[in-house]
Design goal:
Blueprint (H helix, E strand, L loop, with lengths): L2 E8 L1 H5 L3 H12 L2 E8 L3 H10 L9 H15 L11 E9 L1 H9 L12 H5 L1 E4 L5 E5 L2 E2 L4 H13 L21 E7 L10 H9 L5 E8 L3 H7 L1 H10 L1 H16 L5 H28 L19 E8 L2 H9 L12 H5 L8 E3 L3 H11 L5 H10 L2
Antiparallel strand pairs: 1-3, 1-6, 2-3, 4-5, 7-9, 7-10, 8-9
Helix pairs in contact: 2-5, 2-8, 3-4, 3-7, 7-16, 10-12, 11-12
């Protein structure tokens, strides 16, 4: 079976109801496909009209009534608000693997009034309600996806062609009271959550949804060594200071045990001054390697800016007091000190393997978002690499 590229669009309603995490968890764990791209869109009326028109197709195995139902839903619910002109948020995710289109469709499910108790995404999050005359009273598909590989290719090329103008870090898609200005903050769902197909990334997004904040950007990111060095640069000096006493104490114990000599407080302090920075720099190298897949000392200068082998999901959350709210749900750096119900207590293991990162101030959020470049259009790159320009 050949490789395919499949897409899933999370509708504005599903995003608003914070169903993103549950949908993503099912897609990753039940398809076994690789998540290879993600992008937020605030689609224009032009893009939505073209996309809706492509849902009416003689090649679509769904019957004409369902096609027309989807067409009308797309026009009504994905187009800019006709009253305010404000564009709506949608999230588009790309999955790659053998038989990818069929696998995603099997997990998403069909549009039917015959619900089966939550077996598929649409069973759980979608609705199709008809009256006694079989007329549709309410319809919410939860997600949208192509029924065939040919449809996927056509529609992905369409969305890719609009992905610069209509996608990226979304602006002016939400409203706030004048006395409650919003903040933006960055979240990285770290590489350990992608070692094998697991629901952890989606589960963490579910945890973050407790904040009531809104996702305005998403990117599947492979951090380069250069980006990791810059991103975690401020940590290096902190490690040198924080680890000095710990290294001194361990060195003292080792010398007294192995050599049988008494180490004075003065010598212990000197050991910390000389060995502390060496140990801290080694730890810093490990952090960079963990996030990018390569240690700086192992990376040729000409390859320092190349995307790394490890992947993470970068998310930008927007809302009132976004930084504090996300940090509260995340928990402290050390999972063993994190409170019950926090992400790091539930999913973290060590100070380094601690599930996710979140900016600790609005200033650092701006700095970190710039380094990760969340608005970078890797979505279009994936589509063009798969199908050709």
């Amino acid at each position: 079976m050949s490789q395919q590229l499949a897409y899933v669009i999370i509708t504005p309603y599903s995003l608003h109801k914070s169903r993103t995490g549950g949908i993503l968890s099912r897609l990753i764990t039940r398809t076994g496909l690789e998540l290879v791209g993600a992008r937020m869109f605030s689609p224009s009326a032009e893009l939505i009209q073209k996309y809706a028109e492509e849902t009416i197709s003689a090649n679509d195995p769904q019957d004409r009534r369902i096609q027309e139902l989807i067409y009308n839903y797309i026009i009504k619910n994905l187009s800019p608000d006709p009253k305010t002109g404000r564009r709506r948020r949608v999230m588009m995710m790309l999955f790659q693997g053998e038989d990818a289109v069929r696998k995603t469709r099997s997990v998403i499910g069909n549009i039917t009034t015959d619900r089966r108790g939550g077996e598929t995404i649409r069973d759980t999050y979608g609705d199709l309600i008809t009256d006694e005359s079989d007329e549709v009273k309410y319809f919410e598909p939860a997600v949208l996806a192509a029924p065939t590989a040919e449809e996927a290719a056509s529609k992905l090329r369409l969305w890719a062609s609009y992905s610069d103008a209509d996608g990226g870090v979304l602006e002016n898609v939400l409203t706030y009271a004048p006395e409650a200005p919003p903040q933006r903050t960055l979240v990285l769902i770290k590489p350990e959550n992608f070692r094998f197909p697991t629901g952890r990334p989606g589960n963490m997004i579910d945890f973050f949804s407790r904040t009531g904040l809104y996702i305005v950007a998403v990117k599947l990111h492979r951090m380069s060594v250069a980006q990791a060095l810059e991103f975690y640069g401020p940590v290096r000096e902190v490690l040198r200071i924080k680890l000095k006493d710990m290294v001194a104490g361990k060195a003292k114990l080792a010398l007294e045990k192995e050599l049988g000599i008494k180490v004075s407080p003065q010598i212990e302090s000197q050991l910390g001054e000389s060995l502390g920075p060496v140990f801290a720099d080694n730890q810093f190298e490990n952090i960079v390697k963990f996030m990018s897949g390569r240690a700086p000392s192992e990376t040729p200068l000409g390859e320092i800016n190349q995307p790394g082998s490890e992947k993470c999901i970068a998310l930008v959350y927007e809302g009132v007091e976004a930084v504090r709210k996300i940090r509260d749900v995340l928990g402290p750096t050390d999972p063993s000190k994190a409170p019950p119900g926090s992400i790091r207590r539930e999913f973290g293991q060590t100070v380094m393997i601690n599930a996710a990162h979140a900016s600790d101030s609005p200033e650092n959020a701006a700095r970190e978002m710039g380094i990760v470049n969340v608005g970078e259009n890797t979505f279009r790159e994936v589509v063009e690499q798969f199908y050709g320009k």
